[in-house]
Amino acid sequence: MTPSICFLLLSLLFFTSSTTGDLQPHEEGFISVVVSDKGLDFAKDILIDQAIASILQSQLPQIEKTVQVPLVGKAKVVLSDITINDIQVNSSSVNTGDTGIALVISGATADLSLNWRYSVSSWLVPIGISDSGTATVKVNDLQVGLAVNLRNQEGTLKLILLDSGCHVRDLSIKLHGGAAWLYQVLVDAFAGNIASAVEEAISKQINEGIASLDLLLQSLPKTIPLDETAALNISFVDNPVLTNSAIELEINGLFTARNEVLAPQAYHRGPDLSVSCGSRSPNMLTISLHEKVFKSGSSVYFTADSMQWIIEELPDQDLLNTAEWKFLIPQLYKKYPNDDMNLNISVSSPPEIQVTNKDVGVNIFTDIIIDVLEVGEIIPVACISVDFSASCAVEIVGNNLAGWLKLRKFSTHLKWSKIGKLHMNLIQSVTSAVLKTVLIPYLNSQLIRGIPLPILNGFALENARILYAPPWITVCSDVSFLGDNYLKQLPTYAS
């Protein structure tokens, strides 16, 4: 099976979405992928185009027969180099239901070419007669169908071939050269064999494709590494839900620590998802993420101590010298005159994240320790607690869901001090500068990278819209195919 057919069968199955006895009943999916009829038709058309491209120029097995020809004698006829040169599809459909996914092609035509040769020997012609030439074959009514089902098997998808078939209803043969009797021999003795060879070749491609695709599905990763700290659990949860208008897949979707063994996590999704993409023209794909996807990320990064930063530079460098704090904190300047400083910022608890009707609300609780740098020694002198809230506007960057924080408000209070009481109202301006010029821009530089949405390589979101329906964020999008170059990078799997 060529990479193209294997890949496009995979795309159909994933765009028709990407556990039997293995299921744990308390597991839930926090990312939902729903594909509409429009998405199914899109995937079906690409699948057919790519499958045809891989079948063209295929050579069918040689056919050989010995026939008795009236007034001629016994003729040995050989058809060789039988090649499929073109296939045209007039009608196709993909349908889903409780039992599986069915793809049907009807009324297709195919053009074949072949070489023929024969030899005749009889008591009338003892020296024998032979000839050779070419012929073309037109398949006028080709029917192809397959039905498959998908089952969850330990977090991956198991592909089951339910039925498949190929039938040539009619074909015609055009002979180039040769004796008059040869045409009738080809029609009477070989038409059935040519039809059977075409049917067997296409059926073989289907069976090999399903077997290869099943291996490929089993090899899909269950996690996507995001960075040195976290990975995204993309294992499937429960069996795909197939209706007559859409297919839904549920994915775990929660963040995990790198190299962590996957196990059911103590998150509960709450009410089922009920988000519509609205009354506009239907989209191909709907991807919904529960706010607990983001909360799990907050927890993983906090637990890994990844929310700590040392600020050694500010846009106004002079602020990190005690001389600039002479009037803000006189005690600091008096005790440490003209010493450099840094700010040790750490998040004191996992950030609170909540999806609202218009954005994502974020509350972050930080401690800012003021350090004085004196003769190579770092001296903590005060700790200020800063609690701030921000709104996060979600956007699509490539195939990733990214965000952009905007500061709403903040509050400060003194947690401890070794330099006496501080006037917190005077500290507010410095805190505001740190948040607006350092911390928020840094967080945005990380958020804009985004988290990957469940889209296969070689496809891209197109005209995506974002809807907020607490506690869900939903991406409504069409999909574009990026071309054959992506297919060449895929491995070939033996059946």
Automatic annotation (TrEMBL):
Pfam families according to UniProt: LBP_BPI_CETP, LBP_BPI_CETP_C
Signal sequence coordinates: 1-21
Lipid-binding serum glycoprotein N-terminal domain mapped to chain residues: 35-260
Record's keyword terms, sorted: Glycoprotein, Signal
Domain Lipid-binding serum glycoprotein C-terminal: 279-484
GO cellular component: extracellular space
GO MF, any single term: lipid binding
Protein name: Uncharacterized protein
